Q: What sequence folds into this?
């Protein structure tokens, strides 16, 4: 951001003797800030509607937010309400309001009318002598923003918001005061979907970038001595230099580990097909993120390549379906055939083989997680003569399950069909699966992780059944005979 000269111009235009006492305080305050701030800490007085500060730890982001909001409130004679949103109420109070770089420490005491600690409300005077309100909110409770309306907002540490998209949406619906509402957000970046969206180019959107080292003059040398260990690391790029890391870079699964099955090549001979479902069919219920999860389905084919078992994604989809519609969809998908007797069929999403129904191979196993919605679906399917295998992950969380499945990816034994229109790229319907697998780093790291679940449970079951081994099976010679089975009476001990 280029240095702003409007304060200098203001000094040249005004006669100090003609100012009110509050205007003199304001002028002195802005003059001191101009002498202290760096060029990339000035917020322009142009007609922007959204300004984001994406910078490393210790850059001075909080000071930028505090200075801008307090100054903007004073200079706006309309007296409209403003707000501050931080990850928690403690962050609002102890960082944005009362912190060393918070509003109460940058705002001249003469301009402060009242501060309610329990309600997180600051009241200050504007240039017209009217009292204006700055109210604090937390991203832990997005619904508190349903109703209040504002003309400007400062969103602090946006990447650390628990319910980021829900809170942002509620805020946007309340930004309806004044001719041009403004939102300024400050954060150390994380590869979250909202951050990626807000950093894409857009008219009236300004993005300011900076690093920890920009503020070196105001930070202790010992602090920088401790930062040496993070130089060159992904964490250092994110936390020190404010770089927005591609979410797939920090994932457990690497995109380069996934093979592409040539578009013009026939399917391999499929030894086993598993249809894996991660269910969520109750439309009226919301998950903990406040966003309804879809049901995710993946159809995986097992085949042998270079004496090792490999898997290929034959089909996948996500959809929000009620129980009756989900049952119809599952029954239909179980009739789809993949490949044919001559192994010449190509993959087509949700259609399978174009050959007559007598050719190709149907899914051998329907896999449904043994949880609330999955249990109900299995019970209903069982009444219609369709048996499903119940997958119980035990105490393993989503991340642990992905770690268990990761060696199969690392050994380059997972395949996706190549696009016939974009050589070297997977087919477009594979992208949601690949993106989720390569971006997932734990709970809430991505908006939806349903394809992670359906993939890991399919691989886990194939591994448990001995169909997908981590090592080559031992070669048998003609003289080898299977070891005789030893019968043990289970009641003898």
A:
């Amino acid at each position: 951001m280029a240095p702003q000269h409007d304060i200098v111009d203001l000094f040249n235009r005004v006669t100090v003797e003609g100012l009110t006492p509050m205007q003199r305080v304001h002028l002195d305050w802005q003059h001191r800030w101009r002498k202290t701030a760096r060029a990339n800490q000035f917020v322009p007085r142009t007609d922007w509607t959204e300004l984001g500060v994406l910078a490393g730890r210790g850059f001075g982001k909080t000071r930028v937010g505090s200075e801008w909001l307090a100054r903007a409130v004073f200079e706006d004679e309309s007296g409209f309400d403003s707000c501050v949103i931080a990850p928690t109420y403690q962050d609002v109070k102890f960082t944005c309001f009362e912190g060393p770089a918070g509003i109460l420490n940058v705002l001249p005491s003469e301009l402060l009318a009242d501060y309610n600690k329990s309600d997180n409300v600051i009241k200050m005077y504007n240039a017209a002598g009217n009292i204006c309100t700055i109210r604090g909110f937390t991203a832990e409770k997005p619904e508190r923003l349903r109703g209040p309306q504002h003309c400007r907002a400062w969103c602090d540490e946006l990447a650390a918001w628990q319910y980021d998209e829900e809170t942002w949406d509620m805020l946007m619906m309340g930004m309806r005061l004044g001719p041009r509402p403004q939102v300024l957000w400050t954060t150390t970046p994380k590869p979250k979907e909202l951050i990626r969206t807000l950093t894409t180019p857009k008219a009236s959107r300004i993005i300011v970038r900076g690093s920890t080292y920009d503020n070196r003059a105001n930070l202790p040398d010992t602090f920088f001595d401790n930062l040496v260990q993070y130089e060159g690391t992904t964490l250092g790029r994110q936390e020190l230099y404010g770089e927005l890391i591609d979410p797939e870079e920090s994932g457990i699964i690497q995109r380069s580990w996934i093979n592409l099955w040539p578009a013009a090549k026939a399917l391999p001979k499929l030894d086993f097909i598993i249809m894996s479902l991660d269910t969520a069919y109750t439309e009226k219920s919301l998950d903990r993120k406040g966003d309804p999860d879809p049901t995710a389905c993946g159809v995986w084919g097992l085949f042998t390549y270079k004496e090792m078992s490999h898997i290929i994604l034959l089909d996948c989809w996500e959809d929000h379906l009620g129980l009756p519609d989900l049952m119809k969809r599952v029954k239909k998908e179980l009739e789809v055939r993949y490949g044919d007797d001559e192994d010449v069929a190509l993959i087509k999403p949700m259609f399978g083989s174009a050959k007559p129904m007598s050719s190709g191979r149907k899914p051998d196993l329907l896999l449904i997680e043994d949880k609330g919605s999955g249990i109900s679906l299995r019970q209903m399917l069982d009444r219609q003569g369709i048996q499903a295998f119940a997958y119980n992950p035990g105490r393993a969380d989503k991340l642990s399950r992905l770690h268990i499945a990761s060696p199969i990816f690392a050994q380059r034994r997972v395949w996706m069909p190549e696009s016939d229109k974009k050589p070297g790229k997977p087919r477009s319907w594979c992208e949601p699966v690949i993106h989720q697998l390569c971006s997932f780093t734990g709970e809430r790291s991505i908006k939806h992780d349903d394809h992670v679940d359906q993939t890991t449970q399919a691989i886990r079951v194939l591994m448990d059944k001995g169909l997908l081994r981590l090592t080559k099976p031992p070669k048998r010679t003609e003289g080898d005979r299977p070891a005789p089975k030893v019968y043990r009476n289970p009641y003898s001990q």
Q: What stands out?
A: The domain at 6-245 is CATH 3.40.50.300 (Rossmann fold). The chain is about 30% helix and 20% strand.
